[in-house]
Amino acid sequence: MKDTGFPRADAEHDFLRARRRQVLSRLANWLRREPDDVNIMLPFHEVVDALGYLGERKIGARVIRLDSIVGSVDRGRDFDRRFRPTSGRVRERWERLALATRRGESIPPIEVYRVGELHFIIDGHHRVSVAHAMRLSTIEAMVTEVRTKLDPSGIRYRGDLIVKDYRRLFLERVPLSGHARASVVFTDPWDYARLGEHVEAWGFRLMQDEGTYSDRATLAQRWFDEEFVPVVAMLRQADLIGARTDAEAYLWVACERYRLIRTHRWDDEVFEAVRSQSRPT
Fold first, then answer.
1. pTM score > 0.70 for this model?
2. Which of 269, 25, 76, 43 is nearest to 157 (CA)?
3. Higher local confidence (pLDDT), 60 or 10
4. Of the residues 170, 175, 204, 245, which has the fewest C-beta atoms closer than 10 A?
């Protein structure tokens, strides 16, 4: 933090530096051809919708890390992902807070929602922006904790919400739990939709064969234990997983099996056909 001995002038310079850094960051992102959402705050409501809202509770005043604040409830246009001002519109209030901070005046805590380890600002965008400009690492906040169906870990950009949203829908159709839930992971969100249809079809055939009805949770667990686990083990033995996740390898070979042989069985003929198909010509 620069200090000339004139707090008002220093506060003005703080704002100009923050604006300059925002412009340079935007230019660097453009030159690197990074995605449009790389420098945009995560929108709280979209995050919670993608993860599945369960409930919330106020937990009071806490000291939180500035780098854990990744999004906003409703003020995403005035600041970028690192809370640098995106225009001169916020300058007057920003400089007033910067001046108060430099003078050591008391600043009220911000208000945030907590989702996992992530925080989203309800009130206090300017205060967070000034804190970043002053190179602080923490800030005092009044925290409301939000519980969601899915863990928010892995969310970095707005585009990551698509994968979370499809995973949430998949787990509503195929309610796995525990180890089984953690074992089914895709990078392409559409694969969750494809696997959901596949598991539902598998469960329908099972109920037809056994002549009994089973609920979704029971079918999901049986599919994992009786189909997914043994098939993945065979895929490992056949060296057909490669760089894929277990779920990606399973879905790929299950689709290839039916396309090549029109069967739902698993045997050496299936794996040889898939292996031959995957060899370069």
1. no
2. 43
3. 60
4. 204
How far apart, in Å, are the Cα atoms of 57 and each of 42, 51, 62? 21, 17, 14
Q: Is 124 left (phi over 0), alpha (psi -120 to 50) or beta?
A: left
pLDDT digits (tens, 9 = 90+) for 84-102: 888 888 888 888 888 888 8
The Cα 71–Cα 74 span in angstroms is: 9
Beta bridge partners of 237: none
Task: Give me the pLDDT at residue 280, please.
Answer: 46
Q: Which residues pair with 61 in a beta bridge?
A: 142
Give one DSSP letter per residue of 136-197, joined into a string. -SEEEEEEEEEEESS--TT--STTHHHHHHHHHHHHHHS---HHHHHH---SSHHHHHHHHH
Q: If DSSP codes are grouped into helix, strand and coil, which group holds residue 64?
A: strand
Rg (CA), the chain: 25
Instruction: Report whether 61 contacts 142 (CB < 8 A).
Output: yes
Mean pLDDT of 160-182: 90
Q: Under 8 Å CB-to-CB from 164, ≥6 apart: which residues? A: 50, 51, 150, 152, 154, 155
Q: Are 132 and 98 in contact (CB under 8 A)?
A: no
